[in-house]
């Protein structure tokens, strides 16, 4: 029986990661955070039209949450 080679890095190579300043790197982002991260002003404006509170923090993980403004500024640095 041959030993099967398992590439433990394969998951990380195929998964897009989103770096948010010094806050960390994330595999996924909430839709509103993704629109801000990508600089998609049309999508951000639609979220605002739908009543998204710009002062409410967006949870990126169990311990990290940023306001939309903080996310936008952190992403620009």
Explained architecture:
The chain is α+β, with helices and mostly antiparallel strands and 77 residues long. It has one domain. The protein is 40% helix and 13% strand. It contains four helices and four strands. The protein has helices at 10-14, 31-38, 41-49, 68-76; strands at 18-20, 24-26, 58-59, 65-66. The strands form two sheets. A two-stranded antiparallel ribbon has the order 1-2. A two-stranded antiparallel sheet has the order 3-4. Strand 3 (58-59) and strand 4 form a beta hairpin. Helix 2 (31-38) packs parallel to helix 4 (68-76). The longest helix is centred in the middle third of the chain and has 9 residues, at 41-49. The protein is globular. The termini are far apart. Residues 1-11 have low confidence and may be disordered.
**Percent helix range:** 40-55%
* Through-space gap between termini: 52 Å
From the alpha-carbon coordinates, what is the Rg to the nearest angstrom? 17 Å
The major pleated sheet works out as: 2 strands, antiparallel
Number of helices: 4
SSE order, one letter for each helix or strand? HEEHHEEH
- Percentage beta strand: 5-15%
Assembly context of the chains:
single chain
Give a brief description.
The protein is an alpha+beta fold and 77 residues long. Helix content is 40%, strand content 13%.
